[in-house]
Every structure is written in structure tokens, then in C-alpha cells.
Amino acid sequence: MNSNERIVVGMSGGVDSAVAALLLRRAGFDVHGLYMSNWDDDDSYCTGAQDFQDARASAHELGIPLHRVSFADDSRARVFEYFLTEYRAGRSPNPDVLCNREIKF
Fold first, then answer.
1. Smallest Cα–Cα separation from 93: which of 72, 104, 79?
2. What is the pTM (predicted TM-score) of this model?
3. Which domains occur in the chain, in start order?
């Protein structure tokens, strides 16, 4: 494997993404972690701040850089507003489907 080949791994703060980063690093890749902030943490109900701390701890333990990118404005405009509109219309939308298409992939 070419150790100059960079791989970016989405780091959620969970075990799966940390193990994926570990395995890629062991395989010789130049691994960088990416944490996507999709919501503003203005209240105590959102676990985003703790998720980021967990992702940062995993990245530190693995010896890889972690980059944090905010998609909060895009997420609100392209996913959450749609969810609210549909919900007000009496429908039960699934925001995850739209988030996957509009934000994550």
C-alpha cells in the first residue's frame, strides 16, 4: 500500500468509525478523520458536543488528524425545513433519507 494515499473517514464518535480508521491506518493509509456537525448545539438535548469529544478522543488515540466541518446551515435549509413543512401538512417524513441524499452523500 502507498502510505501517501490519503483516506478520509467520517468519524461519528462511535466504535464503527474508529475501528474503520484503525484498520485503514494499519493498512498503511494516511488517514484523516472528518466530523460532520449537522446541528447547532444550543440545547442540552443534542449529543453533538459529546459525539465530537468522543471522535476527537478516538482520533487522538489513533494518531490521526480530525477535521470538523459544520453543515448546520445546509442541514437546516435542505432537510429540517422540509421535515417541518411535511409534518405540518400531516405527513410523517423521514429526514434521514433526505439527509443522506442532500448532506452526507
1. 79
2. 0.76
3. 1-70 (3.40.50.620), 72-105 (no CATH)
